Amino acid sequence: MLSIPFNFKAEELRFRNLGSAVDYLQTPFAGVGAADAKLKSNPSQVKRMIRATLKGMEFTRDPANQERVIGLLMDEFKLDRKTAALSLREIVKVFTRDGTIPEDAVKAEIKEIREQAKLKGEIPVTQLVNYRLLEEVLAEMKR
Predict the structure, then answer these.
(1) Which domain holds residue 142?
(2) How many Å apart are CA 101 and CA 109, to the nearest integer?
(3) Is residue 128 a contact partner of residue 110, using CB atoms and an 8 Å limit?
């Protein structure tokens, strides 16, 4: 299983696509992280980052911006137009509307990390995920 854009390049070379990582994996593909100290010392800065991330996701998802986003992908990753367009289609599949990650996906990621690192103790989702500031930003954006 290849990630974008390599999956599309493989198809051009006549390899058969058996599926996308998006279709099979439950793990989060990206996220915004901040240390507890940062959350406490400068929540307004964290909220600005969250707001900017949500606006970027919204911009990327909006069909009216498709040509601009494809152009950005072409420039940033040195992709041809077709591969950039196909990549954009896959990218927006992993965006949630509210910026959250499904709890099952977080649990799957924790399980994978615990197995790879041979960790014995449990890691609660709440130790890694805190949506308090995200929820505040979402409420502010609805006003």
Answers:
(1) 31-47+101-143
(2) 11
(3) yes
